[in-house]
């Protein structure tokens, strides 16, 4: 099949064909006149030049608006909505075409701005959400991640994007029913999570959206509130009973001491005196015991001040003299935190580590570092290790015969009040345990 000539050539040939009759008539009149041969030749040449020039002018006149429209459409296809055509008047067909293309550019520009604003809003919302959000392509490679996801994986987006779900530890998030609750450990962080999964399309391909909500802190706060309510009730009721018991025992003891008991059996008097003393002493001890638990329910909000980390660690660890506490060191850092609460935190951790180290005649080591803007403190001991780490932070739970079960609970409450997390685990590949405290970048002072 013969190929049709280009449109501009068709216009040129059509204009030449249209002007050909006029040219033939002009030549006919010219050569039938009484002009000289030179004049006839000149007039014929002028007519031919005018004929050709008119055809070329008409060709250009027709093609220039089409080229303008072509350039406008190419700009729109490339996403450039700033170019406009002149002469966009709806009074003529050509002006109406320009008018419609300009209107299309305005419409596309508005839609593009709306899309950019929507994407910017979506990114802002995603970054502000505390949940971890991940997007995976059909090849199970990570294509979308928010700040919560980076924190969960302990990886920046630049390193995480493009990685396989299996290498990130998220393979099971792409399988099974949703929504569901699951116990998970990611990047050394374990907890209870709510998993939700959905589908979306990006660049014409189906993707999977995974949303992980950390329920550990929420459940822990509910648990802590329940313990605090229980402690307040118990403290109130027990103190109401202990106060009169202690007072009556003291009064009876004093009265007995002032009474003439010479006629009484000395053994009976001694029993009464000793019994009243025991009642008063045990009531006082129980009151102090309940008061210690009440600190869990009355821990104030942190009052941040500047803390020099090396000086703070060395000052607190010097209090423990039963075992060798080695400060293995770390960088020169300054924290913005509550010094009294951090003192209580480190005292409890070092004391627990020393108690464990005493059983094996081992030692204790304290170190700190800053990683990705996060402050991390470790207290390591050479003790026998932890038989059951899961219940260590539960109030009233203790593995020590004389323990109260509030030390680690208080530590966790202090750390979480500063926005951090605490973990206690057996040392990998060695005897003993290690307590790890991580505080967010906000506590690192400039």
Automatic annotation (TrEMBL):
The chain crosses the membrane at residues 12-32, 38-58. It is found in: Membrane. One of its GO terms (molecular function) is protein histidine kinase activity. One of its GO terms (biological process) is phosphorelay signal transduction system. It comes from the Bacteria. This is histidine kinase. Residues 60-113 form the HAMP domain. Its EC number is 2.7.13.3. Keywords: ATP-binding, Kinase, Membrane, Nucleotide-binding, Phosphoprotein, Transferase, Transmembrane, Transmembrane helix, Two-component regulatory system. One of its GO terms (cellular component) is membrane.
């Amino acid at each position: 099949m013969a190929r049709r000539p280009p449109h501009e050539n068709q216009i040129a040939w059509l204009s030449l064909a249209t002007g050909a009759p006029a040219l033939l008539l002009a030549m006919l009149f010219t050569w039938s006149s009484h002009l000289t041969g030179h004049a006839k030749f000149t007039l014929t040449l002028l007519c031919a030049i005018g004929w050709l020039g008119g055809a070329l002018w008409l060709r250009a006149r027709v093609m220039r608006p089409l080229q303008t429209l072509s350039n406008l459409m190419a700009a729109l296809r490339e996403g450039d909505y700033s170019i406009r055509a002149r002469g966009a008047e709806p009074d003529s067909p050509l002006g109406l075409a320009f008018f419609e293309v300009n209107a299309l550019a305005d419409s596309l520009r508005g839609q593009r701005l709306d899309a950019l604003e929507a994407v910017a809003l979506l990114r802002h919302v995603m970054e502000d959400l505390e949940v971890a959000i991940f997007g995976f392509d059909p090849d199970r490679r990570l294509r979308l991640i928010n700040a919560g996801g980076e924190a969960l994986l302990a990886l920046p987006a630049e390193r995480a994007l493009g990685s396989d779900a299996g290498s990130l530890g998220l393979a099971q998030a792409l399988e099974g029913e949703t929504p569901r609750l699951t116990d998970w450990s990611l990047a050394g962080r374990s907890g209870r999570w709510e998993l939700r999964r959905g589908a979306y399309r990006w660049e014409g391909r189906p993707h999977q959206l995974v949303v992980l909500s950390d329920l550990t802190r929420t459940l822990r706060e509910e648990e802590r509130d329940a313990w605090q309510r229980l402690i307040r009730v118990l403290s109130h009721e027990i103190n109401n009973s202990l106060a009169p018991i202690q007072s009556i025992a003291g009064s009876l003891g004093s009265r007995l001491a002032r009474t003439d008991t010479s006629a009484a059996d000395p053994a009976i008097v001694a029993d009464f005196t000793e019994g009243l003393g025991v009642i008063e002493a045990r009531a006082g001890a129980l009151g102090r015991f309940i008061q210690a638990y009440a600190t869990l329910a009355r821990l104030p909000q942190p009052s941040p001040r500047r803390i020099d980390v090396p000086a703070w660690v060395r000052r607190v660890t010097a209090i423990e003299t039963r075992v060798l506490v080695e400060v293995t060191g770390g960088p020169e850092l300054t924290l913005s935190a509550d010094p009294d609460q951090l003192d209580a935190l480190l005292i409890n951790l070092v004391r627990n580590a020393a108690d464990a180290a005493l059983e094996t005649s081992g030692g204790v080591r304290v170190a700190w570092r800053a990683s990705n803007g996060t402050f991390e403190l470790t207290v390591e001991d050479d003790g026998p290790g932890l038989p059951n780490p899961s219940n260590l932070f539960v109030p009233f739970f203790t593995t020590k015969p004389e323990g109260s079960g509030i030390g680690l609970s208080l530590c966790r409450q202090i750390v979480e009040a500063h926005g951090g997390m605490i973990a206690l685990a057996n040392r990998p590949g060695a005897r003993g345990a290690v307590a790890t405290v991580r505080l967010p970048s906000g506590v690192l002072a400039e």
